[in-house]
Amino acid sequence: MEIGQLRQRLNQPVKLNFRDGEVVDAILLGIDPERDRDLTYEVRRIIRRGSPPARSTHEGGTNVAKIEELASWEPL
Fold it and tell me: What is the pTM of this model?
């Protein structure tokens, strides 16, 4: 997965696929690959819940996840 390409998608809609199976339609708000290795995103729609489901994930909410938890992404 190319983090540089994801970084170019700031403030744009993306589909995020996490390793736990969670899939969300989100707006990418920030990405920090150097220091904290995390990404910040606003959840527009939950396509599939992960296993176990993340309690903090809800539509309209802002989440922070470790980049390592992200399996793949695609632009929307």
Answer: 0.90
